[in-house]
Specification:
Largest sheet: 2 strands, antiparallel
Shape: globular
Mean pLDDT: 83
Helix content: over 70%
Structural class: mainly alpha
Order of helices and strands: HHHHEEEEHHHHHHHHHH
Number of helices: 14
Number of strands: 4
Distance between the termini: 43 Å
């Protein structure tokens, strides 16, 4: 096919993403029984088709994005920051609730029935913006006051708009920004100052929200507190989801019960999204759990390889900035399922059901492949420009 012939970039990344996407159909189809039987919504075939359409559109996004020269993402980040701020502001203050619980993280897309989680777009755009700033100032002496205006104020406003409704995403973005800043040569003493400032602002936010709860109706502080309390509690009723996830994992043993044979999917809330890893372990056992971890670690390895082979600092930071959060998110989801972290609401990338989370992951993958494709094009051009006699001479001598 002509499309396959035009696929460029790191073939291993393409392969890992394809394997994860194809494998996702098994646990999604199995876990969707919970939504049909317990929640009473839709059909298993309907959920499977929806997931298939989301993934298909996701691969269209990957293909289209990887065809864009990656240097264009530098300017695009500047244009998208104001768009992201408007979307985050609208999302936060729209005051949506689901079953009485604050859900100010989504914008419903009309006619298609899919929720757009604006923080997922913000995550990718922020990392593009940070990579741009660091690349442009790599050979300059960075002045702290100037960087506050050009870098930290835009990033800080984005994080401030995400924080009230989604602490885990805010923490991941903030951590990644500091890591990329360090890798990009931003002075370590300034990074320390920003870290302390972030902790101070977060503490003040918690104290203020507790003191004036009516002013912060769209925050989820009570949810965060209850999740932490439940995580440290021995009470099974208060820690229902985590206990069911542990039971699913324990019953999977080495080989698992087999595809579609999970029992806990009938009792575990969010079995097709936040806790899908527990269902995977129950059905595919320890072997399936380890294989899945190896796939994500393999993706991390390829991300690092692409980043180190890229000839520009912007390309390197861009790949690391949009790629590593995918791995962070996967490891956090798995850690929650096995009881190492309190519940965070982070899905398993490319496997959990969802809407725009899949698309934004695919957008990030497309950006990485764009950088990789540029590197391939440069190498191929150099090979064509080389004189065959020179190559022969080098081989002989």
């Amino acid at each position: 096919m002509k499309v396959l012939q035009n696929i460029k970039g790191d073939k291993t990344i393409w392969a890992i993403i394809a394997v994860l996407a194809i494998f996702s159909f098994l646990p999604v189809y199995s876990a969707s029984i919970n939504l049909v039987g317990v929640v009473g919504k839709g059909t298993t075939l309907g959920y499977l088709l929806k997931h298939a359409i989301l993934l298909l559109l996701g691969f269209v996004i990957i293909y289209a994005t990887h065809k864009i020269p990656y240097r264009y993402f530098s300017g695009l980040s500047v244009l998208l920051i104001p768009v992201v701020l408007v979307l985050l502001g609208y999302t936060l203050f729209q005051g949506n609730t689901i079953s009485g619980v604050n859900a100010s993280r989504w914008i419903n897309i009309p006619f298609v029935g899919i929720g757009f989680q604006t923080s997922t777009l913000a995550s990718v755009v922020v990392m593009m913006y940070v990579a741009r700033y660091l690349a442009k100032n790599k050979k300059k002496k960075i002045l702290f006051k100037e960087s506050i205006l050009q870098l930290w104020i835009p990033v800080g406003i984005v994080l401030a708009l995400i924080l009230p409704a989604n602490f885990s995403t805010t923490a991941i973005i903030f951590s990644m920004v500091l890591i990329i800043a360090f890798l990009g040569g931003y002075p370590l003493k300034y990074i320390g100052a920003i870290l302390l400032t972030g902790i101070l602002i977060f503490t003040l936010f918690i104290l203020t929200a507790k003191a004036f709860p009516d002013t912060f109706k769209n925050s989820r502080i009570n949810t965060w507190a209850s999740r932490i309390e439940n995580f440290s509690s021995a009470n099974e009723e208060e820690n229902y989801q985590a206990e069911k996830a542990k039971l699913a994992i324990a019953s999977g043993e080495i080989r698992g019960k087999g595809p579609g044979k999970s029992v806990q999917k009938n009792f575990l809330p969010q079995s097709s999204s936040d806790f899908i890893y527990a269902i995977i372990v129950e059905e595919f056992g320890l072997i399936g759990a380890i294989v899945l971890i190896i796939l994500y670690l393999g993706l991390l390895f390829r991300i690092v390889i692409v980043a180190t082979k890229t000839e520009t600092i912007f390309g390197t930071l861009l790949v690391l900035g949009v790629g590593i959060p995918i791995i962070f998110q996967a490891l956090i989801n798995m850690a929650v399922a096995v009881g190492l972290f309190p519940v965070t609401g982070q899905p398993l990338p490319l496997i959990s059901t969802g809407g725009t989370a899949i698309w934004m992951t695919c957008f990030a993958v497309g950006i990485m492949l764009s950088v990789s494709a540029d590197r391939e094009a440069t190498v191929n051009k150099k090979k064509k420009d080389e004189n065959p006699l020179d190559i022969l001479h080098e081989a002989i001598g």
